[in-house]
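call fold target=beta-N-acetylhexosaminidase
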Amino acid sequence: MRRMMGAMLAMVLAAPAARADEAPAQAALDRFADTLGYRFAIVDNHPTCPAGIDGCFLSTITLTMPESIPAALPTQDLSLTFGFVNRLPRVESDIFDHRLVNGDLQQLTLKPGAVLKPGASYTIRLWGVGAYFSKAFAMPNAYLAARGLDARTIAATRPVVDSDTGLETLPFVAPMTDEAKLATKGPPDRTRWLTPERAFVVQAERRAPVASGVVILPKPVEAVQRPGAPADLTGGVVLALTGVDRAAVAPALAALARTGVAEGGRLPLAIAVDPAAPTAAEGYVLDVAPQGIAIRARDAAGASHALRSLAQQAAFERGRVKPLHVADAPEYGFRGLHIDLGRNFHGRAEILKLVEAMAAYKLNKLHLHLADDEGWRIEIPALPELAVIGSKRCHDPSERTCLLPQLGAGPDGTGAVNGYLTVADYEAIVRAAAARQIEIIPSIDMPGHSRAAICAMEARYARLMDEGKRDEAERYRLVDPADTTEYRSIQNYDDNTLNVCLPATYRFVDTVVDALAAMHRAAGVPLSSFHLGADETAGAWVNSPACAAMIAQNDGDARQLTPRFIERVSKSLAAKGLRVAGWSDGMGHTDPATMPRDVQTNIWTVVHGGAIREAHDQMNRGWDVVLSIPDLGYFDMPYAPHPDERGYNWASRGVDTHQVFGFMPGNIPANAAMIRDIRAIAQPVPDEPVRGEGRRIAGVQAQLWSETLRTDAGVEYMLFPRLLALAERGWSAAPWTPPYRPGASYDWGDKRVDAAALAAGWRDFAGRVAAQFPRLDAMGIAYRVAPPGARIADGMLEANSVFPGTAIEYRQGGSVWTRYAGPVTVTGTVELRSRSADGRRASRIVRVTPVRTD
């Protein structure tokens, strides 16, 4: 089977590009793509909309022709394909026709008789639905194609990595500077960009001191420094283990060694694990004294957590640790991170780096989103097309060698956004995670979000039909060819939903799950949970002959087919000894009586949009509820409302580290006191329905969806330091949380939330985060370096930072960067940026102009 996969991959990649000296038309297309000017601009987020379009925004593409257009360019057969993630009901152009290809993929072709003139500029007006609040919404790698020629990326649309920040930029996107037109959708939205002047005010109110004392993160339940001489760990330790194998704590010992505390010294380090120890699961007691270090825990996880805490404190105190007593255990048993590999791929090395970072901060569940509409990212040996075809995006209209290049992937099938985890990759990740007491939860989204699987299995079907193997071809076909249902998913696909009425669909699910279970067994770590997604299923199957009987059995309501599918797959998973997990919108529509007893549900509705109702309803079913609330835990949302901040913002205009830190998992309604309704509707958030007696959530999970994240550095920027705040809330109680009272409602700024306790907690946390930055640097984590807040009043520049100790630089008129050390006299506009702890990376540059105060 591996040989077959290799042969298929070779076939896909074998088609050679046409040589310019052999193909004048290809050379002409290449030259035109290299010299065509391309500019994308957001004009207005609340214009007067054309008739029939509600809630529109106006954007433009301006194409500037080169001074010489190659004579051999096949203009009448030429198409320009670009990505546009919003609905695009109206495109206005004098010379171009427009059509939606599928998903975000749009295509322009010349109108009959239209001619491209050398040196001319053509502006295409794009009337989208919704809003573009960030430059990062734009998709790169627009491309040109013509029949019989290799498609070529328009050079002007290629992304560029900024050498100072390490982040991807899109030079073809025009600056967004008009706050009045671009910051909101109009009344009643009162969002304002977080300018440096506004950030200065916010950061002054939240100012935190540089950390001292205990810097362990997440914050321990009890941590006391005692008087006396420090324990000198610089000479190393001698290890004594009781009740635990070295392998079970080896990664944590390695982390300790990286701080300079290696084995081979004389200071005793005794680790005792006893299942009867009077600590909670994953809990530990750590005692540091001049004569030695003692760790007691109930399990290997607790012992590892103790070593991680010791490593943090030893790094901060440079190996000479003051006498310390820590008694600690997690608030919640489920502390998770979700990574989307489907939209844009992030490979083995990046995932392993994140696994180590999770262990450092005591997260214990890694939810790997392995497939979506835009990509299949895991090798399934029995179905090689899934990985070979489903993991690659290129310009192949037939989609027999790859998927169409959604999300700015470009036409040539290269680049890091393409790819998949081999069996060996996945097994290595499972082993590395288990060694750090982290459970891998694989996810294959279904029945919606399944376009990559469908396309790959259609390619398999075509191949086997060509070989005359009809029975084998139909064995895994996931669509009914006679289905005439028309639908569009939320991401604008018309073909992304498995047909739940076909036996082949359930055969496919079993084959994939069994393959994943086999990988886990090979890694020595049995598969425990499988996440089936179950969210955002479009209105499919209505006209599928294969579904006629099933629809009739459900009173003619095709919408009931999704719950029936979830129930059937859940039973199948339970029969395999697996725990079923899924997103709350799909899971909530099932009949609890037909579901297994052991169910995990991820609540992903926003605080003001039904999160409380879903969480309490599904908690009362006896399910394990994991809070994945977008306006607290979706880290693909921007850090702040600003056009230069990357990330989607359908759930929140800004999810900063402070907002995540303030999360109150134990009282979901109370979070409305800290989070404004993005719909700008001022009304209290009620508690509905009341959660059952003794019920509590199972835990919390951070989510990172990857539509706009094409680089690993972008992943790390969006995760850190917010993930540290999520780790804190999963491990440590939030003392500002008001007691849960059934039926209570909360409004913005509600006084029942203890603002003083929150402020004090933030000051302590911010200092501990700053103390972690050198450790993140050492791990190679490209965390976000927040731009400084700043203002100029009466000629005096003042600047501040989110986290204490952050280095700030400023310059005037493009001069040399100067370290900011305190208020300084300046003239005119000033540029500022912050620096990472190791000085290697910078924040984005912000600009401030003088304001008189007299």
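return ok
The radius of gyration is 28 Å. The longest strand covers residues 56-64.
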